[in-house]
Write a structure and sequence with these properties.
It is a single chain. The chain is an alpha+beta fold and 166 residues long. Strands 1, 2, 3, 4 and 5 form a 5-stranded mixed sheet that branches. The longest helix has 71 residues.
Length: 166
């Protein structure tokens, strides 16, 4: 009797090579999936970080815009400034600015009767009877980053309403 073990040995090595190829493909698919997930998370984190930065800057600019509006009101005649629209230029101190923020301030004045606003053409004022204040201004401040500036994929807008004594 003759043994024919060589048939079993050859068939075993053939199946072994096929199993190694299936394992290699499986490992490549798993690594590709992990890399795709990490790339997606990195993209989301970058966008979220940019949007958070722009929003925090808008909050700080709204505070500065309120102070700037009060300065402009104090330099002008009463009720002569109904609104301010500007983009900040931060290059004065050596900072680089792309002028990406649009700031709009709408003001409504509140005075005791008789109001100094009667001498102006501004209709946005109210008369009140209160002896403790000389005048107040209601400011609606909007700081926005439009999508046309190509900084963010979606528009970022911050609105603040402020009541300031004159």
């Amino acid at each position: 009797m003759q043994r024919k073990n060589y048939l079993l040995r050859n068939s075993h090595s053939k199946y072994r090579g096929g199993f190694a190829m299936i394992m290699a493909i499986t490992v490549i698919v798993v690594i590709a999936t992990i890399m795709a997930l990490s790339l997606a998370l990195t993209t989301q984190t970058t966008k979220r970080t940019t949007d958070t930065y722009l929003h925090e800057q808008a909050v700080l600019l709204s505070n500065s815009a309120a102070e700037y509006a009060l300065l402009r009101i104090s330099q002008a005649a009463p009720c002569s400034i109904p609104s301010l629209n500007f983009t900040p230029d931060l290059n004065q101190d050596g900072l680089i600015s792309d002028d990406i923020y649009d700031i709009n301030i709408t003001m409504r004045y509140i005075f005791n009767a008789p109001s100094p606003c009667l001498a102006t053409t501004v209709d946005d004022y109210f008369n009140v009877v209160e002896e403790e204040t000389d005048g107040t201004v209601l400011m609606d401040i909007t700081v926005s980053v439009p999508t046309s500036k190509k900084v963010s994929s979606e528009p970022i807008t911050f609105f603040r309403r402020s009541l300031q004594k004159l």
